Amino acid sequence: MAAGQIGYGVPSSLSAKVTGSFAYLTIRDRMPTILTKAVDTIHRNKNKFFEEHGELRNELQTDKPLLELMDGLSDTESWNQYMQRQQRQLGDQELVSWFKSPWLYVECYMYRRIQEAIWLNPPINNFDVFNEGKTQSFFESQQAVMALCTYLGDVQKSMEKLSENQLSEHFNKLLQVSLWGNKCDLSISAGQENSQKASPIDSLPSLQSFILVNDSNMVWLTLNSSRRPEGSGQKTADRVDIVLDNAGFELVTDLVLADFLVSSGLARHIHFHGKCFPWFVSDVTANDFQWTIRQTMAANHKWMSKSGYQWQSYLNEGIWSYHDHPFWTQPHEFCDMAADAPDLYATLQEADLVLFKGDLNYRKLTGDRAWGHTVDFCTALRGFEPAPLCSLRTLKANVQVGLQPGQGEKLSTQDPSWMTNGKYAVIQFHRPKLE
Questions:
Q1: N or C, which end of the chain is more exposed by having fewer CB within 10 Å?
Q2: CA distance 5 to 175
């Protein structure tokens, strides 16, 4: 089947063609708001910037045809080829445009156009227009960060005395903290303040009933069954990869989970995957990753500072590592990865487990298609299975698979906005079938 061709039984991509749909409201309301905030930030730092590039918001709101990128960066050709692929799917009747093209594509395209505008305007071509929101989210979540680091420190003090059941209990708590940390997403709130202030551990019992799919036991079994004494000659749980989502409080929850995995012996190495440039308002870049660890080290709090120094030590020793591949900041569905980014796919194949954080990663895992709610997660992945994988996601978009019969209908009756309000979540696991 040709690239981009949709086979029998595969639903079409979500788009803004349907007035009133979440995709339509995102492009009509949320994306212009995000652009306005980006423009305002740049204007306060570099007044002349949007004299040249202010037309992007007008293009979006008036459904103008999308333009090819002209910045000559390493991914420019790939982006323009993807646009041509979209045009071939539309045919000759209409041009690729903001409201007629797949929502996933045009939303990604907007952030790449912002990056182009920044890059073409030295000396601000390394400027992060979303940095203020990300740092604000971190600082306004300080009480929650302190509580989480204190919990981790208490667990680590007694780590050697923990039974298997106690270790599993702590693992599940920290996995769920990482899951609910995903609620702190500045792109879904259009850049509005969205920090975590309550103790994340104390909040877990009240959130339990909002987890629609909970495969945490499968994640635990995957890690624990791979764990063997060193030198035993058997397979060890050598590596867990975490495909990051948001900076701020969510990143701290991911770092705490990764610290627990290493200190408990559930994993020996953690590979973090972030973004090459500012993306979807609050997504983690290399600068965000390093800044967060530095700020944690500098905190005037015993357990927070101790955690920061431990994380820096993991990086120095090669136990942790950060990676940013261009594929993560492109519009492709993940089922395209093996063909379009075979080096990244091969890298993920080396992991014992891959955790995908957040809503955008879920949309790319499932192709952002109008799947029925009871369709198997495996089916929606469309062959993407480099390693055992798990999505940790709070729902903020109109796609959700793997539910029980009648579960989606019941939710729609009880809470019509259940797929987009961030109240519900999934811990959804898939293991590749053995050859």
A1: C
A2: 37
